[in-house]
Amino acid sequence: QLVESGGGLVQAGGSLRLSCTASGRTFSGYGTAWFRQAPGKGREFVAATSRNGGNTWCADSVKGRFTVSRDNAKNTMYLQMNSLKPEDTADYYCAAGRVILSTYRDYEAYSYWGQGTLVTVSS
After folding, report:
1. Predicted local distance difference test score (pLDDT) of residue 102
2. Which DSSP category does 103 fall into?
3. Dihedral sign from CA coordinates of 53, 37, 7, 110
4. How far is residue 34's CA from residue 46's CA, in Å, rounded to a whole number?
5. Is 63 exposed, middle or buried, given 0-12, 13-18 or 19+ CB atoms closer than 10 A?
6. pLDDT below 70 — which residues of the chain?
7. How far apart are CA 55 and CA 104, in angstroms?
8. 86-117 per-residue burial string, b: 16 or more CB within 10 A, e: under 16
9. 29 in helix, strand or coil?
10. 107: Cα separation from own chain's centroid
11. pLDDT of 63
12. pLDDT value for 54
């Protein structure tokens, strides 16, 4: 089970940190990622980490503003979001799966999903 937290309402230019905590599984055995879905749009890749957190990837749209990390000892993944823009408004979902390098951006590669947390950025 994956549970996200940390969403909320923030003004443009502000920051939020999302957390995703896993239970019931060995967290370190899975690659993890954040996706988001804005109203009326498809699910979009945001960021991902390798199983040990040594490798991370971010979408071009958030590069330089968002940072993904994980702490396997706490079974938790984080998404630090800075310089938020109104277009970052979306439901943010964490995902975990036994993904391979070529598929980390594909939501179909992930087997486990959280329920989502809403991030709203006002202008």
Report:
1. 85
2. G
3. negative
4. 5
5. exposed
6. 25
7. 11
8. eebbbbbbbbbbebeeeebbebebbeebbebb
9. helix
10. 12
11. 97
12. 92
